[in-house]
Amino acid sequence: MSQRVANFFSDLRRRQQLLLPVWFEDGQVIILDQTRLPFQEHHLALRHVNEVAVAIKAMQIRGSGAIALAGAWGLYLAALTNQSTPEQIKEAGDLLKKTRPTAVNLQKTIDEITRELEPFQGEALTRTVEDRVLAIVQRQLDFEIRLGHFGAQVIGDGDTILTHCHSGALAGAGYGGRALSVLRAAVEQGKRVKVIASETRPYLQGARITAWELGQLGIPVTLITDNMSGFVLQRGMADLILVGSDRVAANGDLANKVGTYLLALAARDNVVPFYTATSSHTIDLSTPSGKEIAVEMRDPREVLLFNGAPIAPESTGAIYPSFDITPAELISGIITERGVLRPPYREKLAWLGLERETR
Amino acid sequence: MSQRVANFFSDLRRRQQLLLPVWFEDGQVIILDQTRLPFQEHHLALRHVNEVAVAIKAMQIRGSGAIALAGAWGLYLAALTNQSTPEQIKEAGDLLKKTRPTAVNLQKTIDEITRELEPFQGEALTRTVEDRVLAIVQRQLDFEIRLGHFGAQVIGDGDTILTHCHSGALAGAGYGGRALSVLRAAVEQGKRVKVIASETRPYLQGARITAWELGQLGIPVTLITDNMSGFVLQRGMADLILVGSDRVAANGDLANKVGTYLLALAARDNVVPFYTATSSHTIDLSTPSGKEIAVEMRDPREVLLFNGAPIAPESTGAIYPSFDITPAELISGIITERGVLRPPYREKLAWLGLERETR
What we know:
The structure is a homodimer of 359-residue chains.
Chain A: H1 2-15, E1 22-25, E2 28-32, E3 43-46, H2 49-57, H3 64-80, H4 86-99, H5 104-114, H6 122-151, E4 160-164, H7 179-188, E5 194-198, H8 205-217, E6 221-224, H9 229-234, E7 240-243, E8 247-249, E9 254-257, H10 260-269, E10 274-277, E11 283-284, H11 301-304, E12 305-306, E13 309-310, E14 317-318, E15 323-326, E16 333-336, E17 339-341, H12 346-358
Parallel strand pairs in A: 4-5, 4-7, 5-6, 7-10, 8-11, 10-16
Antiparallel strand pairs in A: 1-2, 2-3, 8-9, 9-15, 12-13, 16-17
Helix pairs in contact in A: 2-3, 2-4, 3-4, 3-5, 3-6, 4-5, 5-6, 6-7
């Protein structure tokens, strides 16, 4: 049965150079260990759903799309176990959900796979889980390719794109996630692009992961510290800003990695377009504006340490807001898998949100 | 003779708790090694002008005011040498000037001490150099106290001040340099203040040096990464922004540590006042606006390394602009040792610059 899964991945790889964060091979879930990037490309080979849960918890796989897929493959491992029951698969799902309780995409994916399994048993049960997992992977890849296709229209030949944090293949299904799907599609259309990436303290996703992915794709990348984006825009060194998004409120306000708002302010002041690449699933119509978005405050020790070593005197306090709010009026366009939305956003987002519910 | 120098410093210390970056004691120039802060308070005891030159070059002492004073004390060491001649002191000055060729303050200080020494020899020569060095140290301290006095009027009781990089005592003569003189004076007036300091990549002056100084003064400090200032201002967590300045153009445009411009944009967007603390000597009337200020590009490896270890894949490029330009229209006030200038700045800066030339 997992021959079909093997064929699925070999087909994918033949068609295009994917940067897969997770796949299935020889009865094992394979995860590219993102904590060791960019210096080691180390893969974990996991044989039990418990090991998948541990890897998600340890951030060895990260990014909302990627951990949802890791969860899906974890359930597939559970389903492959001899004589597993729907009840056992449900329990595996509960275990996986607990690894990142706030990861909505992971929760939804687990629910989608484990719902209404009661009628199935034996091979039919395994087959049903396999069908659902493959459909989810394929759907996520299709999403990224469609998003890239629509987004590439805002990229010009020869453009230099300034990006922040990591919104790429390793956070998604392997094509390019969100922001980097747009760049990848532009390159596939024959456009030459360069990237300026901000390092993104404290976790350095830009320096470690975005720079690694772009290197894999052969896209030239220049690293800056987070405080240099204003200089870059003042000097006309970037044609466009492109970032991902954690959440889009009903009015178009955007929650994304802390620092995004500063980029958007500098973009407006220097008349450089600012785009976000997102999924219709991050549009949250129940949140009227950015003001109502609660910003997760993470462990402040991460700010006081750099690569594990303290950088400030012991008496120093710290805060670690994980994202900030970029007001809709600073956003030139919202790139989605259904097209690029232009301001004003409210009605278009409402339409897209409702259309998503019904499809 | 150096008894007088010893008395000078013991007087200073009796009067107030100074954070001296450099002083003279027992025939030696003592430098607090800033490369070891904040974890070690290690002092260098230097007996020869060559050693002072090495310490300046190695950034063990840094900040325009502090290296000028280190240069002054280096000349004093040269003057103390038995039978030194005006010619030898001049040579020592040339050696010191070469350590940081773009440090205008250092160059001017050396010139002030070494000019017209030809009439002197023996004890009279040493005494003349000593007079000049002590006058320069006292003048710099008086400057900081005056700057602080004027600046403190913009600080309210209970204010939280957001600052960037390091503009403090260890970059100056020991009271509080520029920005931190304002905070220190406010505290001495009985105002309670708190500080939010951005870490200031890549060199981490905010995390290492500003946080250390504020800790020494008992002022509570919260560290953020450079990308978090927008969040801080959106949430109303800071009442005021206060930074130093590298250069002020004739129209009020400000060159300061890269990232300052982003702070000023976020300040305007959130209606938070933005101040710079500066010296009338950084006003450059020959530069019409920020556009004409050449931004020094430093070694990009500093962006790609942290504590000597790479943070990005080998194929990654980098740039390291040392500062950016904050347009005058984003600046609520320019704090100087002659008072706080309010916009429009052009005429006031011209007056201050001319007044400086004639005093």
